[in-house]
Amino acid sequence: MATTVAGHENHFYSDGKSVEVDLMYTVAKGAVAYVDGWLGIAAADGDSGDSINILADDREYTVKVPAGLSVAKGAIVYITVATVTGHYPDDEAYTTSAGAGHLAFIKATAAKDANNIVKGIMLAHNSLLS
């Protein structure tokens, strides 16, 4: 426990690998989701009005990306916030180009395979609009 200059006692709250969010739409467990300003992977199923956790850590995941997106090993996959419907990124949301309104999502540890699966380390917890 640490005490600030103002005398407020600070306590451990969580491991920081997930964050609780409030859903406005239905979300499926394991889906890429953007909720309450957090981009990550839904840790549970949830309906509108539910609170669930979004995984936003630096572990390695497999993620399905659109067929038209080329992803090489070492590339960063971004999600364009403006092209999210409900809490799900549309196919057009996935890009390998940084830019305004793009959140860094994963850094590929392997190139996209024939099934449109990319293996990569999640960067979402470090994401800033770029």
Order of helices and strands: EEEEEEEEEEEEE
- Sum up the overall morphology in one term: globular
Helix content: under 10%
Number of strands: 13
Q: Taking all residues together, what is the mean pLDDT?
A: 89
How far apart are the termini?
35 Å
Counting DSSP H or I runs of 4 or more residues, the number of helices is 0
Measured by DSSP, the beta-strand proportion falls in 35-45%
* Low-confidence residue ranges: none
Q: Which structural class is indicated by helix and strand composition?
A: mainly beta
Spatial order of strands in the largest sheet: 7-13-12-8-11
Q: How many structural domains?
A: 1
Largest sheet: 5 strands, antiparallel
Q: What is the rounded Rg?
A: 16 Å
Could you characterize what this model shows?
- This protein is mainly β.
- It has one domain (2-126).
- Helices cover 0% and strands 40% of the residues.
- It has no helices and 13 strands.
- The protein has strands at residues 2-3, 9-10, 18-22, 32-35, 38-42, 51-55, 60-64, 76-80, 84-85, 88-89, 94-95, 102-108, 117-122.
- It has a five-stranded antiparallel β-sheet with strand order 7-13-12-8-11, with no helix packed on it. A four-stranded antiparallel β-sheet has the order 3-6-5-4, with no helix packed on it.
- Strand 1 (2-3) and strand 2 (9-10) form a beta hairpin.
- The protein is globular.
- The N and C termini lie far apart (35 Å).
- The mean pLDDT is 89.
Task: Provide a quick synopsis of the model.
Helix content is 0%, strand content 40%.
